[in-house]
Amino acid sequence: MNRQTQQSIRRLLVPLIIIACSFVFYAPARAQQKPPKPISVKVYIMQSLEFGSFCVGADGAKTITVDTYGNRTTAGNVYLIGSGASAALFIVTALPGTFIHIDTGIPAELTGPGGAILTLTLGTPYPVSPFVAMGEYTGVNIGGTLSFNVAPAGNYSGTFSVIFMQE
What we know:
By secondary structure, this protein is mainly beta. The protein contains one helix and 13 strands; from the N terminus they run H-E-E-E-E-E-E-E-E-E-E-E-E-E. The strands form four sheets. Strands 4-3-12-9-8 form a five-stranded antiparallel β-sheet, with no helix packed on it. The longest helix is centred in the N-terminal third of the chain and has 22 residues, at about 5-25. The chain is rod-shaped, with a radius of gyration of 34 Å. The N and C termini lie far apart (about 75 Å).
């Protein structure tokens, strides 16, 4: 092979080697993956916890319980009047798969006529805490129990706290 042929081959071979190496060491460009959607939990009160109307008999410890379905039961000398009871209903919005814990807190006091006090203890929520959000919207029912000795006739009111925590 003469010198001129060798130079021609080199001129062709060098670009071919560079092109071949670029294919061998080629790695596709990778962009950063999309960030995950922020986990946010929102809670809306759809229905309040109501114990309905009742009257009490003789002295002694008494309780009225409303379960997560709104059914009332009593213990002690308590008489239920009509209906009107309901469990609290909260609508929780969260991404499916979000792990949610519910803290029903400590008993609350409801005050009525003459400073009379009823003690409200919240029941176990349904669905039971903790739970995994299966859809965008989850209904959570919470009942409770009123405990008292003496309850003068009248309206009683107060507030209670329910904490929804995303974990």
